[in-house]
Specification:
105 residues; mainly alpha; 3 helices
Length: 105
């Protein structure tokens, strides 16, 4: 945690002793309450730090995704070229076969 949470232990102890706790019990409870608050609650600064880190992570992932998409687009273009080569090759072979069959008849 980056900062302590404000907690009035004196007022807390006074309130507990006014309602039947001994001063020692109230002080121990106040100490533990401060410890729990400071170790388990996020402050505005903690949340802002997390927000900034998350924002940076998202931007990094966005950039990586753009690079990945560009790579996939290049692969698709290369596959299109290969497919067209095979298609034209097959068409030429088919045309040659048809010409050969027509000559035989």
């Amino acid at each position: 945690m980056s900062e302590a949470i404000a907690f009035d232990t004196h007022q807390f102890v006074k309130h507990l002793t006014a309602h039947g706790f001994t001063e020692e019990q109230a002080e121990v409870l106040a100490t533990e309450q401060v410890h729990l608050l400071n170790s388990n609650l996020a402050t505005k600064a903690d949340i802002e730090t997390l927000r900034q880190a998350t924002k940076a992570d998202i931007e990094t992932l966005r950039q990586a995704t753009k690079v990945d998409i560009a790579g996939v687009q290049r692969e698709i273009e290369a596959l299109k070229v290969d497919l067209l080569k095979w298609l034209f090759g097959a068409l030429i072979a088919q045309g040659g076969l048809i010409v050969a069959l027509v000559k035989l008849l």
